[in-house]
Write a structure and sequence with these properties.
Layout lengths: L25 H11 L2 E10 L2 E10 L5 E8 L4 E8 L2 E5 L9 E5 L8 H12 L3 H4 L6 E12 L2 E11 H7 L14 E8 L5 E8 L2 E8 L15 E3 H7 L10
């Protein structure tokens, strides 16, 4: 798993920066830029454990984090839908949820079935929120300017960034997520910034996981609305209809 006060960038923008970015000021400059512009369109290509997924949708950080994404991949068996509003998550997954229903999870209820797993999902979604993901740059150990490049018609400056894994997870509020031996000590990233220090592309590689994320339509209006009650069910209702009972996970 950013972000309406300024308009999206046009294709005639230059990559000239008002402030020279260094290891010392990179995190603050990028975080400030993403936080001032509350909305963005996000597209991601993800490879994990040999499985490939794509995600596309919008994020809105005006009041907390709201998101609406469509996900696809062979492992999903079709297109899945993920929505987040006011810390309530809605999922629609082929073969798991009824075709016309979203399963609703209130993340404010720590005793809800699957709460721990859903919290992990929320943390991953937060990584797609530029204002949240930019927090990891507080853990930079190395920053190198790689030149300039065009991303979706916008001129950008390309950086190679190395962050301390454990410190980055702590900055993202996931301090307990990394255990010794499970993740490398550092994470290598590539980041493309426009002339306002807005992230236009970010690429991350970890053992068995790669993510290539592009951001566009900064500051443009988005409409993220919860599905009507007639299209939602909760996990207990769904399991009851399937003849089962909810447990601590969805698997």
């Amino acid at each position: 798993m950013t972000l309406a006060v300024t308009a999206g960038c046009g294709s005639n923008e230059s990559a000239t920066e008002s402030t020279t970015l260094t290891k010392a000021n990179f995190a603050s400059a990028v975080t400030k830029a993403q936080s001032e512009v509350k909305t963005a369109h996000v597209e991601a290509d993800i490879s994990a454990q040999g499985q490939k997924f794509t995600m596309a949708g919008d994020v809105d950080g005006t009041n907390g984090v709201a998101a609406d994404f469509t996900m696809s991949g062979a492992a999903l068996g079709g297109n899945a839908r993920f929505m987040l509003l006011d810390k309530v998550m809605y999922l629609q997954i082929p073969g798991l949820t009824p075709d016309d229903k979203f399963v609703k999870f209130d993340l404010r209820n720590s005793n809800a079935p699957g709460a721990e797993m859903l919290e992990q999902m929320l943390n991953q979604v937060n990584q797609l929120d530029p204002s949240k993901s930019a927090q990891m740059f507080k853990a930079i150990t190395s920053l190198k300017k790689q030149g300039t490049a065009e991303v979706d018609g916008v001129q950008t400056t390309h950086y190679a960034v190395t962050v301390d894994t454990q410190k980055a997870l702590q900055a993202l509020g996931m301090g307990g997520a990394a255990m010794p031996g499970q993740m490398p000590k550092t994470i290598e990233q590539e980041v493309w910034l426009d002339d306002r220090n807005l992230i236009r592309r970010m690429r991350m590689k970890q053992p068995n996981v790669t993510m290539d994320i592009t951001y566009s339509q900064w500051g443009e209006p988005v409409d993220i609305t919860a599905p009507p009650a007639s299209q939602t069910t909760d996990l207990e209702q769904m399991m009851s209809q399937m003849g089962g009972s909810p447990s601590g996970s969805l698997g």
